[in-house]
Amino acid sequence: MTFWNQLWTTKPIEAELGDNELKRTLGPWALTALGIGAIVGTGIFVLTGVAAANNAGPALALSFVVAGFVCAMAALCYAEFAAMIPVAGSAYSYSYSTLGELIAWFIGWNLVLEYLVSISAVAAGWSGYVVSLLKHIGIVIPAAFANAPLAKGAGAMSVVATGDVINLPAVFIVLAITALCYFGIKHSSTVNIWIVVIKLTVIFLFIIFGLHYIVPENWHPFVPDRVCSTAGAVGDMCRPGKYGWMGVFEGAAIIFFAYIGFDAVSTAAQEAKNPKRDMPIGILASLLICTALYIIVSLVLTGIVPFKELNVPNPVSFGIEQVPALRNWLAPLIDIGALAGLSSVILVMVIGQPRIFYAMSKDGLLPPAFGKVHPRHQTPHVATLITGIIAAIGAGLLPIDILAELTNIGTLLAFLVVCIAVLVMRYTRPDMPRPFRTPWPWVTCVVGALGCVVLILSLPHDTWWRAIIWTAIGLVIYFGYGLRHSRLRKR
After folding, report:
1. pTM
2. Which of 192, 194, 164 is nearest to 180 (CA)?
3. Does 7 map to a domain?
4. pLDDT tens, 359-417?
5. How far is 30 from 83, CA to CA, in rounded Å?
6. Less packed terminus of the chain by CB within 10 Å, N or C?
7. Which residues span the domain enclosing 441?
């Protein structure tokens, strides 16, 4: 076999379905809660305001429809793979069995970026909410220990010092949740279910009471005219710019950060009690519930407050603070719900990332330490600690805007590959038992893949350059270590 052919060698599915070192404890409700725990958080409590003010205006609801539709196509593809190949590793494992080792490494490496950076980004948002909440009870954390020492500079790739020391609350929440995940997924899942109950209660309160204070004029025009950032640029397609129909797609690309949740569900497939039945339920149910909530919350929020005023780190509580009748009692509850929501996102991300490390290590593409499983807790404990430490460093040193920009392209690339891989597998392994089959695959998969491409093209060009740099680093690691230690290549 030539060197080039080795890069495209696929891993037999039967090899993926070997012995399971992880403990199967998750049922359909727990898997659905994992998805809701990851999806309902940053998207509602942070990104709704940013995307409305800077991208889509009141048409943010349409951005959620676009993003939700693309995700639904990808989710149907994920559901087929998760039921057919119920192993840790998510899109990495699926692409290894269909498109070859090099593509699998590319996807796995981008999932590493996606998860690690999203943990840090959400922790930075959590810090802002907890500092605000503590002020209400008279506890003030010095600014030097509540903000990142680095910030985004004037240039696209520049970083400047702020004079602060470290974002201590962000570091604390990452390390605390890492410790919880170290001791077992069953405990982590139970905590996540209670957190999901709290934040859904708060969101329902916001919707029910917020409906009475909507000002319909705030929705007009629903799709604001395009505003071009470049002098002399005209037309709805100008970039950079904001609003217009192009802004709807730009908003969809930005808020796609929120939809990483059902990918996190698929990383727990190896710990599902009955993955052939439960994985499709967990993936599709969490996506449908959360997309409906996103659309309703965005409509209520932009109905209460003019969209141009929503460029704040806490848009939902900010919206309630503009209503005197709700300000004193509902705003603090929103802050508590936001903390719960962001905590559950961090929790699910810390569950998901070590299982991708685990899968890549078992294939020999990462050192054996990443694949070690605790003899008593039956968790990938070393990978969990590595994930927590790296994410805590990022959360303590970098601001949320730099962190959030690094995540979306990794998610979209993973979804794109999974959509393509379903069609490839239908051709290469038509005999493989499929407990769940993606309906109308030549429509669903193609539309899902094209939707991912459109959203990737809608991302800022700076994001592409960061992804290229990250991929280059990953290729150095792959050709320096992974290729030589690949178990598939050795066989």
Report:
1. 0.80
2. 192
3. no
4. 899 889 999 999 888 888 777 889 999 999 999 998 998 876 667 666 677 778 888 88
5. 16
6. N
7. 28-490
